[in-house]
Amino acid sequence: MRVFTASLATETNTFAPLYVDRSAFESAFYCPPGTHPDTPTLCSAPIVAARRRAASEGYDLVEGTATWAEPAGLVSRDGYESLRDEILGQLRAALPVDIVLLGLHGAMVAQGYDDCEGDLIARARALAGPDCVIGVELDMHCHLSAEMVQGADIIVAFKEFPHTDFLARAEDLLELCLRAARGEVKPVSAVFDCRGLAAFMTSREPGRSFVDRIKAMEGRDGILSISVAHGFQAADVADVGTKVLVIADGDRDKAAVLAKKLGLEILGWGQGASPKHYKPEEGIAAALALAEAGRPVILADRWDNPGGGVAGDSSVMVEALLRHPDIPAAIGALWDPIAVSLCRAAGVGAEIPLRFAGKAAPSSGRPIDAVVQVIGTATDLLIPFEQSWVSLGPAAAIRIGKLDIVLASTRAQTFSPPVFTDLGIDLAAQTLVVVKSSNHFHAAFAPIAASVLYLDSGGPYPPDASKIPYTKVKRPFSPLDPNPWL
Ligand SMILES: [Zn+2]
Question: What pTM was estimated for this model as a whole?
């Protein structure tokens, strides 16, 4: 048996003024064939999963390119086409193959391509032929298009948000593809379109028990796999929205019935699936009421999360914390490569006048001018996220009174405490810790937190879908229209 695997991924916020070209992939994560590290990244886990089982299963593995760009705005046509054609050229050279395994995101939009993954899968199918098993792993924040489902035999999306399961789902995908290639199962897919946005977190109810329940359904009664594509609302594309994908063994009607049942259950939660979002001052007051000695309250600045395609340099929460100089607090990581270079040149211990944050867009707030003390620097701030390692590039920690601030050169979200602790910031000594992350922080920060709260500090990500200027979405679509299923 021969298996080909590759990965091409980013998440495109079509409203973000941060443009992406090939160099954004090359500088974030770019591994030509055979150079992928032993550990997976968020979207390249199929490569690692396939490597680990090649010897025991006895298949020949051909690795193509694996690449990722940090979520941002529209991808250039040249950038997408050159990376797509690089991978398709590698597939062509590897033919014939029995399985194609792709690690994609599912929400990549390029100039002229609203559905990059649907395009890539269709071209891979045209090359590999109808008998090849094509398996795709997607981030749950994808636009699950009909083209993707038609082109692939098996699609498996992450189930967990925070995404703690990208390697586990890649292993599920590989197992199903191997069984399909051996003729042991006949995967058939059905999709239920929720006709709206119904995302949820699995770090809280009702999402937590729902995902435990769908996991228990897999592998029983002819159900091979269940994925909920939550969707990614910051994209003006026709396929935006929440969808449920069920793959059954040969029985499409059974898959369709279950997909609809699960989709209606999710829709029934309404707003109850989302946590409360506090405005900055309200969030600080709520957090102070929950504070415990030695355990900070974590405040997530959800809508300035680089993982959602925005800059991650909003100063709104820095200004809010500076209005409370008596509160020991930390905030990070803010994207500001210029400020980092000035701090690193001045050195640890230096006191310097610094302008930082609030630069990338009008919605990033105003830049902050202050005399700061440089308390820590790093040549490359490398932090763990589940089985992967994420680089924030050269970084610096600065102090203004009781407020410690982490600045980083590479846009990446605050996945885990080493963003602070590797720069010498003691989190147990803080009352409040503000993280630039939507929910991936939760897995690593919740164990050290007195409590976790979510902030709405005003952007720049568009959190209220009813106010997003969509032009392409298929109507009816809630919350723009009443949901036709309810
Ligand atoms: Zn995601």
Answer: 0.93
